[in-house]
Amino acid sequence: AISFPTSRQSRRAFVHLLVMIFYSFFKTLVGKEIAVELKNDVVMTGTLHSVDQYLNVKLLNVQVVNPEKYPQLCALKNCFVRGSVVRYIQIPPEHVDTELLQDAARKENAPAKK
Description:
About 30% of the residues lie in helices and about 25% in strands.
């Protein structure tokens, strides 16, 4: 388990570090098919075109997963999604480097050396 820092400055630095980790990871997925679930329950799939440091994403060849519920979005081809409205980003398992994640988890949970 990751312990969350208690001071305001430490929390801010910790959150910034997490955002940069996700940003770096999502940059490796540019050109790959992903699914984005928004906080208003809309789910769309598309090709990740770009991501920025605020975790805003631009999708190409967008398709809405539930077009009957959201017919107004059926004509959407490309879109920009503000990072603050994203609930989840789903990626295909073959694009997840499990060895890299396991190594990162081991390093995070390793006892501190003195």
